[in-house]
Structures
1.
Amino acid sequence: MTPFLAILVKLSRYMEPWFVQLVELLLKSRRFRVHIGSSTSSWRLQKNGLPQGSVLAPSLFNLYTNDLPVTKCRRFTYADDICCVVQAKSFEEVESTLTSDMAKIAEYCRRWRLKPSAPKTVSIRISPAQQEPRPGIERQFERTAANS
């Protein structure tokens, strides 16, 4: 299923048919060209993605990702960024939870053709000063992006 069709399928679960048709018109047959200095490229067909800068894009993305898998971590989202937070008594528990949750999210992204940004996938550990820091969480999306 193409991302274009996937968003329409997902929208049809939550929205009235007239709204799904409106979004289809917004996303269908979009064209673009690039201007650099005095040069202009030929028109190209935009095959997927949401129009950047559109006031609807963040809401459409939220509807598209509304069915993210259930995870143990607490998730915070802003536009197309997702932050996963875990609090635990041991680093091993944090590592295990985040690794498991990131694997679920990575599989969801693969299934729905979302491409996470590996360089933006980071972890941070906050702990009392007397504890020695350990290496960060393995970044699941790096392997997912490499396999795409």
2.
Amino acid sequence: MSHDIHSVYFDISHFQSRRLTDAYTAMKTKCPRTGGAFGRWGGLFSVSDCAISHLRGKEDPLNSIASGALTGALIVFRKGPATMAGSALLGGVLLGLIEGVGILITKLSADQFLQANHSAVPVDDPSQLPDPIQKPPKQEYGMGGQYTQGGYQ
């Protein structure tokens, strides 16, 4: 009985060990290919984004969306126009989603700061605003001033 339990445990641990070894081997084999594909995509995207920005003369989210579509099409150039169209659509939609989420986050965070600024100083009470003519008081201890006060001149 004890021998059977040990045998089952050894089989399971050997199976898990073998799976880890196989996973590590697959990772070592596929990582250079995946990294190379990511590098090609990133390089082509950067070049097309800069080129489109230069041609259009302005920097906006449409440049990234068009660059994603152009990159998607150029990556699969050798597979034909139908595959290029599908890949361009996928690249454009993917970059459109990324840019849309970025714009949404920027808008939400800007609204949050805008609300904080409005709640800090009420617009209806001008007495809370600082006097524009009055100068701020001079600080005695700033930028090393504490060393000139006590005889350390």
